[in-house]
Design a protein that fits this description.
Elements (H helix, E strand, L loop, with lengths): L1 E7 L14 E5 L2 H5 L2 E5 L5 E5 L3 E6 L23 H15 L2 E10 L2 E6 L4 E4 L11 H10 L5 E6 L6 E2 L6 H7 L10
Antiparallel strand pairs: 1-2, 1-5, 2-3, 3-4, 6-7, 6-9, 7-8, 9-10
Length: 189
């Protein structure tokens, strides 16, 4: 018996990266084990360090199959079959990675005065879309937009070719305010 996989028993602080009860592959890392960490291939598909206390080793049986040529003496890795849910999630992630469309929260006054929202600092950046937050999913951008003031719109961008390019037409504050009901109180007090 040889421990090759760890089951996640705790994910506090890593909820988006680790799934409780799921078995993860382990990558041998001596430095990490000295620091009571374990290198695990998480939900992103990359190997990251996590506290060893968050996992319990599970034993997998060696099948005796040889990897490579005869005489090498290494046992082939056993792969757990993927569930239909895991296959569906992997396919969704692959589609999302190939799709260059992204969304940004924008407050437009004129073509020369546009504010781009940065989620990490909870501020607006003036006239520099590269410093605004890009969302992969429109639903996520809409959820954040609902928490902000009325003059914020969701704008489509593309990241194709490594360059940020706007796809949605310019609306402007004056045109948008004609279609919106004006608030009784000014949001700029």
């Amino acid at each position: 018996m040889n421990p090759r996989r760890f089951v996640c028993v705790e994910n506090t602080g890593y909820e988006s990266s680790l799934e409780l009860g799921k078995a993860y592959r382990v990558i041998a890392d001596r430095k990490a084990s000295r620091r009571k960490l374990v290198r695990v291939i998480d939900e992103s598909g990359e190997g990251y360090l996590y506290p060893a206390s968050y996992f319990e080793a599970i034993e997998t049986q060696d099948t005796g199959r040889q990897e490579g040529g005869a005489g090498k003496g290494r046992v082939a890795d056993e792969e757990m079959p993927l569930s239909p849910e895991m296959i569906k999630e992997l396919q969704r992630r692959m589609r999302a990675a190939r799709n260059p469309i992204r969304y940004m929260l924008v407050s437009e006054f004129t073509r020369r005065f546009i504010l781009y929202y940065d989620v990490t600092t909870d501020t607006y950046v003036m006239n520099n879309p590269r410093l605004g937050t890009l969302f992969k999913r429109r639903e996520a951008a809409e959820s954040v937009r609902k928490l902000l003031s009325r003059g914020v719109a969701v704008v489509r961008f593309t990241t194709q070719g490594g360059k940020l390019k706007r796809l949605s037409p310019f609306v402007g504050f004056a045109r948008r305010s004609r279609t919106m009901a004006l608030p009784l109180e000014s949001p700029w007090k």
